[in-house]
Design brief:
Length: 67
């Protein structure tokens, strides 16, 4: 991060390891627009991506493809 003041904790949806994960906490810098998660969150994201059926509910969503 850019080390300027103003870091905020936000919650966003993200795709990690091909899995859609909702409500993930990130530290966000409004100055440089980078976001980072802490070690515990990163480890949880890895565990979810490694075994999504253990942590996730499966939803079907329509997906459009633009040629």
């Amino acid at each position: 991060m850019c080390s300027q003041p103003g870091i905020k904790v936000i919650r966003e949806d993200t795709i990690f390891g091909g899995v859609w994960i909702e409500n993930v906490p990130f530290e966000y810098c409004p100055n440089c627009h980078e976001r980072f998660c802490d070690l515990a969150t990163a480890q949880q994201l890895e565990a979810i991506a490694d075994n999504p059926t253990k942590y996730a509910r499966m939803l079907e969503r329509p997906v459009a493809h633009v040629a």
